[in-house]
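hey so u asked for the seq, here:
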Amino acid sequence: MENTSITLDQAYIDQVKQNIKPHWGELGWVTYKRTYARWLPDQNRSENWDETVKRVIEGNINLDPRLKNNPTTEVVTELTNEAKQLFKLVYGLAATPSGRNLWISGTDYQKRNGDALNNCWFIAIRPQKYGNSSIVPSYLDQDQLAVSLPFSFLFDQLMKGGGVGFSVAEENIVKIPQVDNQVALTIVIDQKSPSYDNSLEHGAVDYADWAQANADADNYIYYKLPDTREGWVLANARLIDMHFKQTNPENKTKLVLDISDIRPYGAKIHGFGGTASGPMPLIDMLLDINQIINERHNQRMTSVDATDICNLIGKAVVAGNVRRSAELALGSNDDQDFITMKQDKDKLYHHRWASNNSVAIDANFDNYQPIADGIKENGEPGVVNLDLSRNYGRIIDGYQKNIDGEVEGTNPCGEISLANGEPCNLFEVFPYIAEQQDWDLNEVFRLATRYTKRITFSNYDWEISREIIYQNRRIGVSISGIQDWLLNDLGHRVVTGFKDEFDEETGEQIKAPIYDPKGIEMLSNAYQAVINADNEYSKALNCNTSIKHTTVKPSGTVAKLAGASEGMHFHYAGYLIQRIRFQASDPLLKALDACGYYSEPDTYSENTICVEFPMRAAHADSKDFASAGTVSIAEQFATQAFLQTYWSDNAVSCTVTFQNDEADQITSLLKQYRHCIKSTSLLPYYGGSLKQAPKEPIDKTTYEQKKAQINGNVAEVFAKQNDDQKDLEIVDQTDCESGACPVK
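ran it, structure tokens below
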């Protein structure tokens, strides 16, 4: 067999660059340069946009499995022409792969790590087997059920830059056995380690002292962590599994973890990128997790315990690898301890900030008042309707029993309902921009469908993922800038009014939304284009058609590139402060400070600085301007329902914002839309009780005052201060408007 690679001709790229201007948003180029432009060591500079797009498209097109087996001339020609069209589409920013793909596709990291192209994952917190995976603890058989597996999966995916949704619903937690052993954990470090002094402050002990005191002892398990991601995962797995008899073959209760080889704070992380924080966050995490499980000796762990462990892992990843950890915890709707766990403010600020928390409901659920009360207080919990996800695609297509029957949860932003071990697989289309650039939308959606389909042919690291991905071939073609598109093509918003109706089941009076028929037609045509493309390509590849195809992701950084409104959302405000978090050692902070931007330490994460950016939305002073602050909670629910009914067969990510005087509508609206919204979350418009909210509305005068304090161009100042820097990253430049999903 001979593999063939598709490459883009430089002459074609130069031609596209002459004829097409990328649709950069106001902060688009700067966001791209700081977030997605990879370092080119042989040229001592970072990528330009055309180089990024070339890398990304070539990385994707060569996943087509037909290229592995002496492909025909027709196949090579077909894929070469497709690569050209994709390059033109993405270069112009009429559509784009997920931020994850912009960063990873076409790199050596993609080739080494099969999970690299998928942004977010889901795992059920219950004992599971490691199987034939890239990480398997040496003390376990591949088919042995282990409590550590879901935590190892979550830890690994977070460190690879993904987000993870996880279920601590009762049907999962009840499968975790009683904690048999208390484990005495000792973390040792050699005096030669550059992290020695700091590690001792965090609870480690001197290796030589420990070794001398235990020279004749053999009643412990010793593990020296290699300086790798896998080493961190395996150390945590061993710690967890020693608490349970069936995964503690040596029947020992003392664990010694040697962290001497872990690279110090500030050292480069090669492959994925970024800089290390040293072993200190790992020390804190391991000691805290051990304490949680030890306190359950001779008892069963609870949903709160499991969520705390996941949150502590997320906290360590944020500090440890300069990534923003994204988690969604899904609990049972009658689990009051889980629902109220963030009311413990000490633990909230210590680690419970690391997940957005939601509850799972079904068709029979009707107790929305306690949920509404929690939302009014702090914007949680969100709601995930697993019945709808399992039995419906688009709502307009009606009930289809178990069409997606293995769904157990969702990704952190809620736009993709997922089975155990399954990831998101996203591509984003900006229909309004595509129309401006004279694209045929059917062709745009065809290219998007084929791009995502190829990703399902990656070599995935975890057995639980491989099995479900190859079975479902789930894709998520998303549309963004939806408000821009609808407003342009319809001349107004898609919800044209409300009419009085009665709920067929409860008899209660409701205000049913009225949708513009042309808007319905626009969405239906786009959906059919995706279905047609999937049927065609699946036949050519001799694989299953995708179980589901379409979604609305919340967007964020990618929308900023193109200057589009984010997902289905309205602009948050005409004028606002946008807060962005940076790694404390990021030299970009020096340039921001020189230009007059206000910054302060982040409330939630160590080694992180929060910077304020005054922002003005397009058309902020227009009489027709609509924002989340002026669009009613009822219209936001109705818009999400519209997209779930006519476009998305997966789900629609939406963070509904509400004013104080709208809070009493939450219960009735959740109930009204229970049969047509698969997942939703709500936030008080002013951020509720959250400190340093990502977005804070301000008035025009305040904006002008803050803007007047800023002088100079950050990119130019930064260039003067630094010869283009390698491996820098904005901590929460996220793939999602809500800040839930990480970019990388």
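The longest strand covers residues 575-583. The CA atoms of residues 197 and 559 lie 44 Å apart.
lmk if thats what u needed
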